Fold each of these.
Amino acid sequence: MNIKLSTGKSIPIAKDESILSALKRSGVYLVASCGGKGTCGKCRVKIQGGKYRTSASGKISQVDKEKGIVLACQTFPENDISVEILEEARLVVGDKIALAKSKDLAELFRSFGKEIAPIVKRFNIKLPRPTIEDHISDLERLKRELEIKGIKGMRFSQAFISSMADDLRKHNWEIHLAYVDGPEAIFVTSEKQTSRYGIAVDIGTTTVVVYLIDLSDGKLIDVGSTYNSQIRYGDDVITRIVHATEGGGLEELRDTVTEDINNILETIIEKHGINKEHVECAVVSGNTTMSHLFWGLNPGHIREEPYIPTVNSFPLWKAGTARLHINKQAPVYTLPCVASYVGGDIVSGVLASKMHKNTETALFMDIGTNGEIAVGNNEWLVTAACSAGPCFEGSGIKHGMRATEGAIEAVKIAPDTFEPSVSVIGNTVPIGICGSGMIDVISEMLISGVIDQKGKFVREIKTGRLRQGDEGMEFVIHKGAKDIVLTEVDIENIMRAKAAIYAGIALLIKEVGFTLDNIERVYVAGGFGNYLNVDRAIIIGMLPDIPKEKFRFLGNTSITGAYLCLLSEDLRQEAEEIARKMTYMELSVSRNFMDEYMSALFLPHTDLSLFPTVAKLLK
Amino acid sequence: MNIKLSTGKSIPIAKDESILSALKRSGVYLVASCGGKGTCGKCRVKIQGGKYRTSASGKISQVDKEKGIVLACQTFPENDISVEILEEARLVVGDKIALAKSKDLAELFRSFGKEIAPIVKRFNIKLPRPTIEDHISDLERLKRELEIKGIKGMRFSQAFISSMADDLRKHNWEIHLAYVDGPEAIFVTSEKQTSRYGIAVDIGTTTVVVYLIDLSDGKLIDVGSTYNSQIRYGDDVITRIVHATEGGGLEELRDTVTEDINNILETIIEKHGINKEHVECAVVSGNTTMSHLFWGLNPGHIREEPYIPTVNSFPLWKAGTARLHINKQAPVYTLPCVASYVGGDIVSGVLASKMHKNTETALFMDIGTNGEIAVGNNEWLVTAACSAGPCFEGSGIKHGMRATEGAIEAVKIAPDTFEPSVSVIGNTVPIGICGSGMIDVISEMLISGVIDQKGKFVREIKTGRLRQGDEGMEFVIHKGAKDIVLTEVDIENIMRAKAAIYAGIALLIKEVGFTLDNIERVYVAGGFGNYLNVDRAIIIGMLPDIPKEKFRFLGNTSITGAYLCLLSEDLRQEAEEIARKMTYMELSVSRNFMDEYMSALFLPHTDLSLFPTVAKLLK
């Protein structure tokens, strides 16, 4: 049997195989936030002809059903079938992500006042040439010389030794011995070979970013990024953990993300004509689950009480083990994690923010697919995860999508006519709404009176924009061939997410005996952080009502921290110390969390005195 | 195109591919001592029909040529061809090799007075179960406990960690931590799991032997052995080194011998119902080239002046790296080598002989595919290689073969009629002659006057056994459908080999300022050593004329030493010390070697006063 796509492409499908599965096997990936369980309603395709059976799904409206729209994960062809993949179900990969500025990075590194000290060190050695009289083996010859120089206990792997003999001769016995602390020999190279590169990698749940760095001067040579292809197995960390614990899932997830990194790597390495053997170290930053998956470690125990990761502080393993396509012997440093839901990305972020060095008390928040927060200063640090869920990434929202082309990213609602005007990424016809658009539209609806503080539509207002949809009341943000709406159910989901973030912040600050007034600085990190409108986020009560001038947007601090660790031994030590020093609070088990959360399930909050600027606006 | 074998089997062959190559590709291996260069004349097949072209070879007699006999390596079919593989060209594998006696081994180990101390050590640990409050990662939990017990700096590989989390839970947090010195964690197991096994492996140029040992009591559970399948790429060490340095050859040789070991392993492990994960360490002994090939190290520099191995003292690497099918984390100890042509097998042999512990001065010799010798006592040790070549294994001898079924292993010649009587391994029709048979027939011919002291046939004697063959004069040892002969050229080759061994012994003893009288003990090791008739070997002047009671036959000491090292840390240390202490003499560059060698190119020797017992016999 075959699936004929509207593009003309034909794809084989087995008996009793879902359309989603067949497409995935052939490399056509759909948005399937739930991992193909029929619950997210995203993998919509239109059947244009052919026999099939499909499970009824509340996620498909009657009108759409009549058009032949089905969920690909719940639909099984019974003979050849013609299928059109709907625009919003198509998984767009490879979008451009704001390019880091090399100058800013270099300046940030300089501001730490550290020398460049890569993970791989070098030792200049001139060996006496072997003769019939001095016939000890190559390894013993090297060891003898190291002993003369006072270096003892060097370890030698089979990988090192298998290339050493030829390299010693090729470089005429005058070599640089590359090694890491331990000490362990990494490779032998010529004295003249001075090109040394490293990579910094951020493995986000949604996005993978790679920096290629010149280790001689710390310059950013190039950046590459892509969506984390693990998305095909589910949007959020929990769905991926579940997939990892199913037969073969762990290897699948590991291979997928490694392939993403290698694809970027190979492209930028080739572009700059660099020999991959000269890429001699890597630093990886990611949340705890991403770090476990990258190293092929079963993350299963992360989601079972009492939520224990296998490793927080990762040993220095090799690129060969990590399956990265750089020098196989290159050491790979992994940013240390703090707990199951506070990972190396947050340690990286705290490092990049410098809050661990300053006397002022700061709040750090990284709002990505999950929300993590940290509070503290140079004396103490506490951290927590908010389990906000991925709704700001589009998951669980009827027309939700990521901040890519076609996403409504900003909305204004005319206070008299309730007519919305939208701005769309790429200035095209909108196909959905992304996180910043959601925050905008909810705050605008609140201010203009379309919704009340409970997030419910005010049915009395007069506008054709408010209507009854398949899933209850909805507000039409954009009218067109396809209307883009926000439903009452969507608003509930967004309120749950923002309440989780706010409750996390509020509780964490309380737990350390502080109030919001004590917070002297707020660092907002994460891809999301780039577009976030603070005023609007305060209006819906996602961010606390703190003066706008205290906010600093840092962008992707996970990759920034990885970059810093690539360049400096001191900063790697600082990262380890941050992870050790951070006290993790498991909010979900705190009695007070539910109280804080319930109080925050209001716009902006049940206690309006906490949001004086919003209270003023609402008057 | 196809080759149709007389067995009925059909094998595909490409255009311009030799019959040898096509057979090899299909898993049919012929004896090809020279590696397929047309010089050894062993890979004889009979063409029964079909068109082909073949290079003329002096190795095929006119009579044989007329029968359609050709060298498979020099023959290229031009269309479908029918081929019969001649019995003597068939590479027989899997012959039985004398089974070691478990009792003797245990007794030998006891005689060293050492406790059993395997490479993998164990540590009993009971970890507190994680809770919401005590939520550190599994690895940090383990490290914390180790710190309490005063163990610091333990290393953890990705392989260890990837199975640790599940194992800790499976064994209810009460575990044995298996580790090696370094220290490095190897695996986690239950307190109750007390079955522990190890393997000792001898990688000979010709034979591979594996012992499966119970580490709790040192008992030999089973033995397996096979021919080293690297033979298909050539008989001797040099041919293999050459093959290793040709594209892909190194990996081919490595895979071949690893497969041999794994085949034996899997058979005996399965036979005894042992879980391969419980085979937790290995010791490997082999000559320098075999050890390099086993670890995938290019042996190319071994044969180039100044003859430098890449490694003599091998680090402790893992079974996973070695590709052995036991616990992947199992450490593999490699017996240290001394020089390019004195390897771990000799260190192993010296250890097993205990000559390094005794005050009496001993001569140790291992006559296998090569000949290596050592002289010394508990104060000093010198060693040398003789480069005798593989003629005693059958290579370079017209009807030479290994000591397997069908080989003439002993010969007597009636002093009046010159009629020989032979004894054949397996009591079958003889198809060739092996090393001990060669020594017998030459010594008998010398005593009975068939040859003179130069190894030339005495043409005057009256016997039909002496005749003109294709390659000059020859003596018919056995008459039958196929006559088995020894040619004058064969005798020359054997004399060169025995002269090399004798010259090595004589020179080494001289170099240390000794005479034969100072040698209080002679240890003869090697597969060859099992069958060697000392009297006859003295008659031809291969062994020095030392009283017979000083000789001790030790059999395969390479595997015995590996067994000892598997059981005891002290004995591994002793092996390292033997290797360090042994002074290697490169005989081939010594001015005196040529003199010694030339003098020994006589039967028994140009200086008969060195062989008083033989002088008596010759009278």
Amino acid sequence: MPHSNPRRKKNLLLRLGRIEGQIRGITRMVEEDQYCVDILNQISAVRSALNSVGQILLEGHIRGCVTNAIKTDQGDESIDELLQVIRKYTL
Amino acid sequence: MPHSNPRRKKNLLLRLGRIEGQIRGITRMVEEDQYCVDILNQISAVRSALNSVGQILLEGHIRGCVTNAIKTDQGDESIDELLQVIRKYTL
Amino acid sequence: MPHSNPRRKKNLLLRLGRIEGQIRGITRMVEEDQYCVDILNQISAVRSALNSVGQILLEGHIRGCVTNAIKTDQGDESIDELLQVIRKYTL
Amino acid sequence: MPHSNPRRKKNLLLRLGRIEGQIRGITRMVEEDQYCVDILNQISAVRSALNSVGQILLEGHIRGCVTNAIKTDQGDESIDELLQVIRKYTL
């Protein structure tokens, strides 16, 4: 993420701070033996929040690095790498 | 999670502590403008770690609450709730 | 699926017939070199339709086989198998 | 998929033909009231097969359409569309 956009960065850090808080909340729920289904619902909420962070990073990566690589005729390797990342998220 | 198993609880807390550390690591990577693909790979690792925590909780829930509910002929509501949780994870 | 519910069975067969038609539609789109994004959207629709079939089967399985196994104190193996199936869908 | 690669097209059609056969197999399993878990495992196999078809199409799309759009400075819209497709597969 060179030439990183400061607004997007701030947005990402805010989201990650919130996710860290959510993880701490889940830890507390486990410590207090709270109802499993409530904990599972919280985990599902963190998954969605993480997916959103992933989407923002992916968008920045495609609009930045991948686009630059393609414009300078070095797209092949960059696209290989991109496809590998996407595969991890869809399996 | 009443009658919670102390070994499983310890295991869960250990995993959640590790996940919290991973989130802090991702925050640092974003702060330092590290390469997006590396950050995306870290997010994918946290997703897997969270899924494992979810699996452990789900197993405890089915073997505990759902089994008890079924044995006392009160399974219907418990199964509805279980299916709803599973749906969140497979969509 | 012993003691299978005839209405659910009919519902499942209807959905599977529709999915088979969707697959043939996708085949035609590939043959005719249609726009990739349109084909990808169709594949995503089939994925959702398959997930719904899976949910219906899973519900029947939990309310039927798993419940019976638990009631006759033979739940352990049945729950192991159930967890394995769920894992396949959440990974 | 204009300028479509004939080898990839043949590969895709082969895979789709196999998936159609798998769906018919699942239909037969439901008709014969076979064991739910076996049917669920078959559905999970079709999901994987569909994901592979999606990956092949996505790769072709990024190497073809998206790359061309970026090279002619018309990448923005093409990338929006790409991100939307990816989102459908990761939610």
